[in-house]
Amino acid sequence: MFFVYFCGVINSMIMKIKTMIVVACMTLCCSLVLSSCATKMHAINRLEKFSYELRDNSQYYSVDDWRDAGEEFLDIRREIKKHEFDYTAEQKKKIGVLEGKCAGYMAKGVKNGIVDKVKGFGNELNGILQGILNAVTDFTDD
To answer: Domain residue spans in the chain?
Structure first.
């Protein structure tokens, strides 16, 4: 009688341990899936935030700011690349749109930087010509 009772208690304990192991495995799997999802979404959110930063502030960027922006863009791209097979078609489309916006802001910034340098050089050249003309005028007056 005691033996039968003892076997029942042991059986009950084994079932509880099995249940706890199953629950622990399910919890571990869920946490891995959720953390992976959070990480891949972090990359998209970071890209979106970066596109807003470029949209709002890139017109004020210096050469160093552009270098930093380029490095950040590459870093975000590496993070996205790690999860490229985890994204849905909709998420991939959003990534493409955001990358396109960032590339557009970067191209516009580079163009504006070149135009500003050309304008600056043009003003300098204009000053040089004005100086030469003044010197020639002064020389002919003597």
So the answer is: 40-141
